[in-house]
Amino acid sequence: MTRTLSRLRRAATAASLAALTGFALAAPAGAETVLRLGTVLSPNDPMGQGLEKFARDVEEATGGEVVVEVFHNSQLGDTTEMLDQARAGANVGTVTDVARLSAFVPSLAIMSAPFLFDTYEDADKFALSPEYLGWGEELSEKAGLVMLASNWYQGPRHALTQGPVAGPADLKGLRMRTIGAPIWIETIRAMGAEPTPMAWGEVYSALQLGALDAAEAQPTAIWGAKLYEVVKTVTKTGHIQLVTALVIGADTWDEISAENQAIVRDLAVQDGRYASGLTIELGEKALADVAATGVTVSEVDLAPFKEAVSGVYATLDLEEEAAIVKRVLGE
Hints:
Layout: H1 5-26, E1 33-38, H2 46-61, E2 66-71, H3 79-87, E3 93-97, H4 120-127, H5 130-143, E4 145-156, E5 158-161, E6 175-178, H6 182-190, E7 194-197, H7 203-209, E8 214-217, H8 219-224, E9 233-235, E10 241-249, H9 250-253, H10 258-292, E11 296-298, H11 303-309, H12 312-315, H13 319-328
Parallel strand pairs: 1-2, 1-3, 6-7, 6-8, 9-11
Antiparallel strand pairs: 3-10, 4-10, 5-8, 5-9
Helix pairs in contact: 1-2, 1-10, 2-10
């Protein structure tokens, strides 16, 4: 993925400048609309930095007609709570794993399917495909949620445990925190652990107190949440590539003019690439920093894990969606 970093930054800069110089001149004067965007992650996380850049870019490109306020560290609640607020009409949005949205549009779960995307570039391509965007329209109609962009990459999810992991058998019976969506739950169960959904802000204390035996998270979040203080081993399973979406409520979205909607969507994609570039750049450094604290960071043979989760697609009736992904990617 590192080979795409320079390209992503050049594309993000060029497209952002186009939005700033082109769309801003076309946008008519109007009342200010405020978008309150929350994240469970820290300000230093790539997603937090991406949101701050998005806020600056949107305000400048719309001439102040759309203002983005960013709230870090679960200030607006956990991800599920923020989505519930948005659906209820509150002026709230968030960056969310797309699998949480599959309760409304089941096909969206494919974005979090195990061992599906090999690179961020593949995920970015699929997130802008007509097939995926069609599911996004369906989400707006069914759930009142608008996905501005679904290419905010948070990195590969790895296993965090108190002991070494050589294969699925070593995860058997471990209470592992995961995201409370069927694709995540079934993936963790297939890998051998006991899936335990829990708010992200509670994971540190649950590991510290023994309420959890394990967790799974991306490198930058492991470092940002200081989970290296409460686990002993990080095994680089990379079982799911965490590709997330920037989502807001349809009620708030409808308050924005069509011209400014075009600006916001364009910048959401471009700043998603910016944040994703940071994820790629900082991910390996985060793991090196984790290892420097004394935590064991190890590679593992992925073949047994891939075999273990191979039935998840059939279990959740996602085989057709998997075929669509392969077709879009030309595989």
